[in-house]
Amino acid sequence: MKIPPEAVSTEALEAIIEAFVLREGTDYGREFSLQSKCAQVHRSLMAGTAELFYDPVTDTTDIRPTDN
Questions:
Q1: Cys bridge to 8: 13, 29, 44, 58, which one at CB 3.0-4.6 A?
Q2: Chain-centre distance of CA 39, in angstroms?
Q3: Is the pLDDT at 49 greater than 70, yes or no?
Q4: CA contacts within 13 A on the Cβ side of 8
Q5: Whole-angstrom Cα distance, residue 30 to residue 8?
Q6: For residue range 3-18, what is the model confidence (pLDDT) as tens digits?
Q7: Cβ distance 18 to 34 under 8 Å?
Q8: Higher-confidence residue: 29 or 42?
Q9: Are 29 and 50 in contact (CB under 8 A)?
């Protein structure tokens, strides 16, 4: 289920983004700080180039690029 980032508290969104960034296999091509990576993902969510999803079956969240 797609969740608008605005529907999530600031603290929860920050935690979701940080968990996403820290997942093994997330490739940014070169070294960036955690803060920088999180800011990049946050900008993508706010710009609509990434979307936040929640799976109620597994009780997990994910961030995916949009189909645009």
A1: 13
A2: 10
A3: yes
A4: 20
A5: 30
A6: 999 999 999 999 999 9
A7: yes
A8: 42
A9: no
Q: What is the CATH class of 2-65? A: mainly alpha
Q: What are phi and psi of 30, to 5 degrees?
A: -160, 175
Q: Across residues 53-63, what is the average pLDDT?
A: 95
Q: Note whether 2 and 51 are within 8 A (CB).
A: yes
| Residue indicated by tokens 């968990």 | 19
SS (H, E, C) the chain: CEECHHHCCHHHHHHHHHHHHHCCCCCCCCCCCHHHHHHHHHHHHHHCCEEEEEECCCCEEEEEECCC
